[in-house]
From TrEMBL:
The keyword Iron applies. Pfam families: 2OG-FeII_Oxy (PF03171), DIOX_N (PF14226). Residues 175-278 form the Fe2OG dioxygenase domain. Belongs to the iron/ascorbate-dependent oxidoreductase family. Keywords: Iron, Metal-binding, Oxidoreductase. This is Predicted protein. GO terms for molecular function: metal ion binding; oxidoreductase activity.
């Protein structure tokens, strides 16, 4: 990544937030800042994870041309006739390439106004054969965003008072899963005063960290302090969404944030998502240092493959999957059926 002389968003010093209060993290300071600047930025990042589970990242080094190329390739895929995507239309939640509508149409119940393509990009890139431009762009985009997400993971580890490499090591990120997702939400008119159709209902992401940018049409909402807030990006920035594995490994210090996508009434909305998660065979559990007495363990260990398969095979239900691995205390409900093991 090119981190030399990073352009600064006008009037946007590092360690601050957007007009709506969404934290903004300057990656160039995290990577190239002097010791004092870095320490400040790590603290700011820690607060962003603790108070929001959601932030924007600027000066991230992913070229705008690469972002556009990725969005264009996804757009081209969505415009292909169904027979050219047929082999991926019936894919299951753990298949490395999947094209579909809704979240998981086998269990959705409601029809969500969304088309998607999902590709496993790490440890190995899987990609639909068409459009032909997709493979090359996806490979470059996956590598570039992966670097950025690993930098953030190291800084997040430090913000928890841990060694920078500790989270990566515990989750075996070197063999970790990375998924690229293209989301396409055709316009859908709501009635007057209507909030708009739901493209994707409230959920937290199953992985560690999710990176997202959109095609200039807003619609991503995050739940903050009990209220839904429309996320408006600083031009050129990415959104970063904390996922369930960050909540587990941090023993609940950082939370997987609830978010949802609304559909625009007039314009097509698109988003490109990159998610990194543990190695599918890693058993994820809280870092012991973060669960020392009097805290105790908030989550029990769960193999990421089982967790992801469960979350992806069932109706999206806010944080229902995470609740199944929460250690029950006297005043919390203990689920009768544990699905993982
Ligand atoms: O399209 C969006 O803004 C949200 C997408 C999302 O939450 C997801 O793909 O998990
Ligand atoms: Fe999501």
């Amino acid at each position: 990544m090119d981190m030399d002389s990073p352009p600064r968003y006008p009037g946007q010093p590092s360690g601050v937030c957007s007009d709506d209060g969404i934290p903004v993290v300057d990656l160039a300071v995290l990577v190239n800042g002097d010791a004092w600047e870095r320490a400040q930025a790590v603290r700011h990042l820690g607060r962003a994870c603790q108070d929001w589970g959601f932030f924007m990242v600027t000066n991230h080094g992913v070229p705008e041309t690469l972002q556009s190329a990725m969005m264009d390739a996804c757009r081209e895929l969505f415009s292909l006739p169904p027979e050219q995507k047929q082999e991926h239309l019936d894919a299951g939640p753990m298949d490395p390439v999947r094209v579909g509508t809704g979240f998981n149409s086998a269990v959705d119940g409601a029809r969500y106004w969304r088309d998607y393509v999902k590709m496993f990009a790490h440890p190995e890139l899987h990609c639909p054969a068409k459009p032909e431009s997709l493979r090359g762009v996806a490979a470059e985009y996956a590598a570039c965003t992966r670097g950025l997400l690993l930098e953030l993971t190291a800084a997040i580890s430090e913000s928890l008072g841990l060694e920078g490499g500790l989270i990566a090591q515990r989750l075996d990120l070197a063999s970790g899963l990375q998924i690229l997702v293209g989301n396409h939400y055709p316009p859908c008119g709501g009635g007057p005063g209507d909030d708009g159709a739901v493209g994707l209902p409230a959920h937290s992401d199953h992985g560690l960290l999710t990176l997202l940018f959109q095609n200039g049409v807003d619609g991503l909402q995050v739940k903050h302090d009990g209220r839904w807030l429309l996320a408006k990006p600083i031009p050129g920035s990415f959104f970063v969404i904390a996922g369930d594995q960050l909540e587990i490994v941090s023993n609940g210090r950082y939370k997987g944030v609830l978010h949802r996508a609304l559909v625009d009434r007039e314009q097509v909305r698109m988003s490109c998502v990159t998610l990194i998660g543990p190695c599918l065979d890693a058993v994820v559990e809280p870092v012991p240092e973060l669960a020392a007495p009097p805290l105790g363990l908030e989550f029990r260990g769960v193999k990421y493959r089982d967790y992801m398969e469960h979350q992806q095979s069932n109706k999206l239900n806010e944080k229902g999957a995470l609740d199944l691995v929460r250690v029950a205390t006297a005043d919390t409900y203990s689920p009768a059926h544990i699905f993982f093991n």
